[in-house]
Amino acid sequence: MIDPTFIIIACxxxxxxxxxxxxxxxxxxxxAKCRTPLVxxxxxxxxxxxxxxxxxxxxxxxxxxxxxxDNK
Length: 72
What we know:
By secondary structure, this protein is of the alpha+beta class. It has one helix spanning 41-57; strands spanning 7-10, 17-20.
């Protein structure tokens, strides 16, 4: 299963790939190599809202739609 709290963001300055485990809505992530902000202000707001909304769906019951069809 894909972990939604784990994303990889390429640095716009040095192009290093940064693994961001948890996207904190209070902080803009920076590159581990050159300390450049990885996202702009608007993109940060969108990712923060996405993370909050994704969390609201995590507790829904599995009615078979998310299950693996081959694993009966």
